UniProtKB/TrEMBL annotation:
<dbReference type="InterPro" id="IPR051908">
    <property type="entry name" value="Ribosomal_N-acetyltransferase"/>
</dbReference>
<dbReference type="InterPro" id="IPR016181">
    <property type="entry name" value="Acyl_CoA_acyltransferase"/>
</dbReference>
<dbReference type="Pfam" id="PF13302">
    <property type="entry name" value="Acetyltransf_3"/>
</dbReference>
<dbReference type="GO" id="GO:1990189">
    <property type="term" value="F:protein N-terminal-serine acetyltransferase activity"/>
</dbReference>
<feature type="domain" description="N-acetyltransferase">
    <location>
        <begin position="7"/>
        <end position="173"/>
    </location>
</feature>
<keyword id="KW-0808">Transferase</keyword>
<dbReference type="GO" id="GO:0005737">
    <property type="term" value="C:cytoplasm"/>
</dbReference>
<protein>
    <submittedName>
        <fullName>GNAT family N-acetyltransferase</fullName>
    </submittedName>
</protein>
<dbReference type="InterPro" id="IPR000182">
    <property type="entry name" value="GNAT_dom"/>
</dbReference>
<dbReference type="GO" id="GO:0008999">
    <property type="term" value="F:protein-N-terminal-alanine acetyltransferase activity"/>
</dbReference>
């Protein structure tokens, strides 16, 4: 799936182990994801297999974000369907340092959001972002998500429960990326 002219979203591959290694070295990514906090090839392979299992079982759609020009993976984005029976899904994303500041997170979020709302017809999408993470919040708002409030002690992050700001986007909110969300 194209995320603009410079990046694509694709299923995880075993060739993505260097990306898992880079993410495991980040001080924050392993705290909020299932990236192994201590890298080993075995732990990284298990991570990739979990992504395959999530897709195979319908738990979600995990994607590696890959730079087109050199096929280098720079991050990940996932559409998680645990709450789909209630008409909502959540999106999570992360980017390793060499992928940041290039607009790729925004493009990937816009791509997955449009696909989830338009093609999959999911009524509500939501993001959970720590209040200090202003860059991620800015990206969410730029794509069309609305800040809806603060969920106190919402998520375990490392050794503590942390607050999360919730951002939501409804299928009925209007166009994403200049195109209608739903067909009329």
């Amino acid at each position: 799936m194209s995320a603009g002219p410079d990046f694509v979203l694709r299923p995880w591959e075993m060739s993505d182990l260097p990306l898992v290694r880079e993410a495991a070295q980040d001080p924050y990514i392993p705290l909020i994801t299932t990236i192994p906090p201590r890298y080993s090839d075995q732990a990284a392979e298990a991570f990739v297999r979990r992504q395959w299992d999530r897709a195979a079982t319908g738990a979600g759609y995990p994607f590696a974000i890959v730079r087109s020009r050199d096929r280098r993976p720079v991050g990940a984005i996932g559409l998680w369907l645990r709450d789909l029976p209630e008409g909502r899904a959540s999106i999570g994303y992360w980017m390793v340092p060499y992928g940041r500041g290039q607009g790729v997170t925004r493009a990937a979020l816009r791509t997955v959001t449009g696909w989830a709302l338009r093609d999959l017809g999911i009524p509500r999408l939501q993001l959970f972002i720590e209040p200090w993470n202003t860059a991620s919040a800015r990206i969410a708002v730029d794509v069309g998500y609305r800040h809806e409030g603060l969920l106190r002690g919402w998520q375990q992050v490392g050794d503590e429960r942390r607050d999360m700001a919730v951002y939501g986007l409804l299928n009925s909110d209007g166009p994403v990326d200049g195109r209608a969300v739903t067909a009329h």
